[in-house]
Design brief:
- This protein has one domain: Serine Threonine Protein Phosphatase 5, Tetratricopeptide repeat (Alpha Horseshoe), CATH 1.25.40.
- Helices cover 75% and strands 0% of the residues.
- The protein has six helices and no strands.
- It is globular.
- It starts with a helix and ends with a helix.
- The mean pLDDT is 78.
- InterPro entries: PPR_rpt (IPR002885), TPR-like_helical_dom_sf (IPR011990).
């Protein structure tokens, strides 16, 4: 239910920092609750909206996969991150970049 409410919220104001933080929190919570597929839905939605996830968000997805014994997928995600040419930023820097885009 929280995921559906979040999707409704972002349809009105998709670029707000509050929505970004809420999305990260939902991904973390869903991963901890063994609802990795729902967490990945939000992760994919973030990327579709041209948001670069913080490393901590990806870490929570990997931990979620490990919690439900999806080791191969966790390794694939880890490997794909290593193969990508992503300029990872610290959390404070990511917030600054989001603010500058608004």
């Amino acid at each position: 239910m929280a995921v559906e409410l979040f999707k409704e919220l972002i349809s009105f104001a998709s670029d707000s920092a509050a929505n970004w933080n809420m999305c990260i929190s939902l991904i973390e919570s869903l991963s901890l609750a063994h609802k990795v597929d729902k967490a990945f839905e939000l992760y994919v939605d973030m990327i579709r909206r041209d948001s670069i996830p913080e490393m901590g968000t990806v870490f929570h997805l990997i931990k979620g996969l490990l919690r439900v014994n999806r080791w191969d997928e966790a390794l694939q995600l880890s490997d794909s991150i290593c193969q990508m040419d992503i300029d990872w930023v610290q959390e404070g820097e990511a917030a600054d970049k989001r603010k500058s885009r608004l």
